[in-house]
Amino acid sequence: MSIYWIVLDSAGIGDAADAEQFGDAGSNTWKRCYDTGKLEIPNMEKLGIYHIDGMNLKSPGQTPAGCYGRLEEKSLGKDTTIGHWEMAGLITNAPFPTYPHGFPREVMEKFEQLTGCGTLCNLPYSGSEVICDYGEEHLRTGKLIIYTSADSVFQIAAHEDKVSVKKLYEYCQIARDLLQGEHAVARVIARPFVGTYPDYVRTDRRHDFSLQPGKDTILDQLGKNGIPVQGIGKIYDIFAGKGVSQTIPNHGNKANMEEVFRVQKSDFQGLCYVNLVDFDMLYGHRRDIPGYTNALNEFDKQLGTFMDQMKEKDILFITADHGCDPGFQGTDHTRENVPLLCYGKALRENVNLGKRGTFADIAATVGALFQISYDGDGSSFAEEILK
User: In Å, what is the CA distance from 116 to each residue of 103, 111, 374?
Assistant: First the structure.
């Protein structure tokens, strides 16, 4: 048996009960795309996306071939790391530190001392804007561009002609080792870019240096039972490699789905865990509504190919890790519920899983489907969906 677990990074569906506490009341990533009138997702409609409780976007139409539900995040955060950790069975009860005014001087001085490099910016910033505003000075001086966001991240941008990608990764590892304890940010992110002013472009050689989860997740528990975990996209980075037995790094939604097709055609048996980051990185943060809408349409076409190639015992989960409403104020993630779609020949059709109290129910269900002992957070819905 193989389970394919595909995360549409940031494709939230609104209505988080605590959205106001995060400054995100009224955000709804999916509705923002639907309201363009250009969202064409027949395969996700077939699985039941519009039957999910509270979607209220259009008449649900056909009887779903899949199972469907709404997941509420229980962890105190709205970033990629917290979202993925929770769906893998680890609820985070305390938020990671954030730096709305930049990192403390003592942190920056120690980083500069350890790397031998000066730094620029050290403020919350849009990733595309920060390289435009500081790129020329970086190229002239060799100083590293350091910035953060509303998330718990320490980001280092450098032009590939000035700092090799390998050297940038070394600087990020230095930052990762430094940022522990009080300043244990969720991720240190390498942000290489190329081009000339003002047309700098970030490359797909981004790399995330995450904290390791504080305890075992479903990924570790599968491995201990001899079940391989294939990570595609930034899954390996999010879990700092913990529990991931094989990995294909991120090269964008289209290429990542092509890797999924490759796995489908192999004799792989296990969990294939996929993150499609373009929704978030290219369209959500950049508040690009048409781009986000088109990306959902393009994924849906590839989903049709995936469904046609599914084997008798294959099971598919589609979900998200948080929201990033491309029409909302600012440029940061938004606190939202996320969709859940389940499909496979071994599963029932038209099962409404309702509203689940935590993303971790996915991990518990994966454990039950693989028939292993699972001791993480969440409750299984395997009995509800299996024929």
Answer: 18, 8, 46
